[in-house]
Amino acid sequence: MTPLHLSYFMAFIISMTGFMLHRTSLISTLLCLEAMMLSLFIATSLCPIQLQTTSFMLNPMLILTFSACEASLGLSLLVASSRTHNPNNLQNLNLLQC
Amino acid sequence: MTALFNSTLLLTLMILTIPLMNLPLSMKPKTAVKMAFFITMIPLIMFISSNTESVITNWSWTMTSTFTMSMSLKFDQYSIMFIPVALYVTWSILEFTHWYMTTDPYITKFFKYLLIFLIAMMTLVTANNMFQFFIGWEGVGIMSFMLIGWWHSRLEACSSALQAIIYNRAGDIGLILTMAWMATNLNSWELQQIFSHTNPIPLLPLLSLTLAATGKSAQFGLHPWLPAAMEGPTPVSALLHSSTMVVAGIFLLIRTHPMLSTNNTALTVCLCLGALTTLFTAICATTQNDIKKIIAFSTSSQLGLMMVTIGLNQPHLAFLHITMHAFFKAMLFLCSGLIIHNLNNEQDIRKMGGLHKPLPITSSCLTIGNLALSGFPFLTGFYSKDIIIETMNTSHMNAWALLLTLTATSLTAAYSLRITILVQMGQPRFQPMPPINENYNTATNPIIRLAAGSIIAGLLISLNTTPMKTPQMTMPHHMKLSALIMTIMGLTLALELITMTNKSTKPSKTHTFSNLLMYFNTLIHRSLTLLNLKFSQNTATHLTDLIWYENIGPKWMTKSQTNPITTMSSQKGLIKIYLTSFLLSITMLLLT
Q1: Which of B104, B300, B451, B511 would staple B281 via disulfide (CB 3.0–4.6 Å)?
Q2: Three-state SS at B55
Q3: Whole-complex ipTM
Q4: Does the CA dihedral B163-B167-B168-B169 come out positive or negative?
Q5: Where would one find the signal peptide in this protein (chain B) (predicted)?
Q6: Is A34 within the bounds of a domain?
């Protein structure tokens, strides 16, 4: 694997680990989600440049758009739940069961 | 001779407008009307002697090349006879107003309103095309509104004025419909062109004409505004709502009777409507306690009788009744106005009595008026009412309408007797020390003048008009005397009323039924509007807001989704544990 591939692969793995081992607050989870999306963006934009396939060059834009949507959705859910329940830590997400 | 005829008629109409212009030396309205009356005697005498009629057409308002309209005045039998009568009555009323409204600060404005009303009425009566007629029609409606609400700080006066406008407007729909039909089918609004079509007119324009007459002349269905219009001052009631404005609807039907006579269904509608009106209002009049309301209901009853005459295809008899009725009805209103003022604004007949000695002129004129109203032989009312009832008895018509009208005739005698007894006879029931004084010439001269009219005008008018249709000359004895018999029956049955003033009993259900106008006002003005408002509130808040927005819209979606989710979901929401196990399994996958 080239050093370039290694860099974004490792970034993805580290942020995924941070996503799954969150302890204090939900915001760190959302930040790690963003970092995963960022590494995916870099991967999908470097691939068509190297392989010179023009038909995949639009792909990173789509990923970026959808990641923005999901980030805003996650943030709004965070705000909504922190307003009604305890706004401090939100560790016990199983309390949000309906 | 036609020059004299035309010029005197135009001069009459012009003189009426002089007090309204801001000239430095303007004459008073009463003088103008008096001069106009005397000038209009000239064309009247010319008409009686040589049957002169004329149509004066002035400038043209042509809008398109196919539809022409011009200002034209038609002076035929109806206009020439009506104008002197109206001017005579108006002259007396204006003179009475000088006494009645002396203490009113806006008396000049009152006179101007009455004069504008008179001009609008003249426009209506002399109109040769429907557009000019409509101008006069609307003019009298507006002036009626302004005059009924003269004391506009009084709540009942404002609501009565509003009632008058709304009911008149409901009738105007009919008139506009007729005008639209005439414009599209007969291509003209001129009466001469309309009457040249002799083929049968369809029912729709004739029914809408009847609707217009129902609104303006207070026939059953659109009648409540007339008793409510008694909130205005007595001169207003005397001029508008007894002699001139309310006959405008009947006048419309008289003018357009060549159209009406072609269709028998329309005539039957007029007949039955008139019969219903006359009986309904006569029943209501027998139990009212306000003197002006009794006279208002008697006006309504006589208007129903005129409608019946139209339904019999006898417009000339209806017109005769219009002219004769104006005299004694205006006089009854003026007498009641004088009584009301003299008893310190007391209008309830249960609180009047024994006015025979203090007010001799007024009470004798009141008696003359009541006798004329019931059709006492050879007074004014007899010459029109008796002929109408004779014609009704001998014509081929609806027996139910005949029965109703005869019953109403006897009730007329009953409530007239009631007024006479309760107002004039017996012991006085009014408060002590009222300012009773009838020594004012301005108050009693008009009443005496109208009383003279009530006695001889019937004879004069009926002798000088040529009958257009041959009246029925021979009939059995009982038919000839039927009007008189019904009147005497009503009188004898009503003599029971003499004992009513010194017994106070709880009113029976029939009495309440008749006193509250057969609950028509309560139902239409209160219950129906409450129903409407409640329905609209239900639709707006309950249906739209509560149901559409909440139960069917967004909230139903959330409710319907969360229920299956809770039942079908097997996860417990332990996110950290799930994520940690995912991490563990990924690392194990990558290491092997």
Answers
A1: B300
A2: strand
A3: 0.79
A4: positive
A5: none
A6: yes
Give the Cα separation of B62 and B358 in Å (integer): 61
- Of the candidates B368, B363, B341, B365, the one whose C-alpha atom is nearest the C-alpha of residue B423 is B363
Q: What DSSP state is assigned to residue B344?
A: T
Q: Quote the tokens at residue B392.
A: 């009704």
For residues B259 and B205, is the Cβ–Cβ distance under 8 A?
yes
A56 is a domain residue: yes
User: Residue A8 is part of which domain span?
Assistant: 3-85
Q: Which residue among A21, A91, A94 sits closest to B583, beta carbon to beta carbon? A: A21
For CA atoms B289, B290, B292, B297, the dihedral sign is: negative
Positions in chain B whose pLDDT score sits under 70: 497-504, 573
Chain B interface with A: residues with Cβ < 8 Å: 562, 565-566, 572-576, 579-580, 582-583, 586
Distance from the Cα of residue B74 to its chain's centroid = 24
Number of domains in chain A: 1
The alpha carbon of B278 is separated from its chain's Cα centroid by a whole number of angstroms, namely: 13
Closest CA to B385 of B460, B277, B313, B309: B309
Kindly give the interhelix angle for B107-125 and B130-148, rounded to the nearest 10 degrees. 160
Which residues lie across from B56 on neighbouring strands? B73
Cα–Cα distance for residue pair B362/B99, rounded to 1 Å: 15
Are B582 and A93 a contacting pair at CB < 8 A?
no
- Domain assignment present for A75: yes
pLDDT of B471-494, one tens digit each? 888 888 988 888 899 999 999 888
Predicted TM-score (pTM) of the model is 0.80
Taking the mean position of all CA atoms in its chain, how far away is CA B38?
29
* CA–CA min distance B576, chain A (Å): 7
Q: Per the domain annotation, does A95 fall within a domain?
A: no
Element (H, E) at B18: none
- Look at residue A90 in the predicted model and tell me its pLDDT: 67
Picking from A19, A96, A98, the nearest residue to B579 by CB comes out as A19
Put simply, the answer to whether B574 touches A17 (Cβ < 8 Å) is no
Q: Give residue A45's pLDDT.
A: 94
- With CA atoms as reference, the chain B residue closest to A98 would be B566
Distance of CA B523 to the CA centre of its chain: 20
Domain at A32, CATH number: 1.10.287.3510
**B390/B386 Cα distance (integer angstroms):** 6
Q: Which residues pair with B190 in a beta bridge?
A: B129
Does A19 contact B at CB distance below 8 Å? yes
How far is the C-alpha of B169 from the C-alpha of B180, rounded, in Å? 16
Return phi, psi of residue B305, to 5°.
-65, -40
At A22, phi and psi to the nearest 5? -75, 145
**Four-residue CA torsion sign, B377, B378, B381, B385:** positive
The number of helix segments (H) and strand segments (E) in chain B equals 27, 2
Question: Chain A residues with CB inside 8 Å of B576's CB?
Answer: 22, 91, 93
User: CB distance from A77 to chain B under 8 Å?
Assistant: no
Q: What is the pLDDT of residues A8-44, one digit of tens each?
A: 999 999 999 999 888 778 888 899 999 999 999 999 9
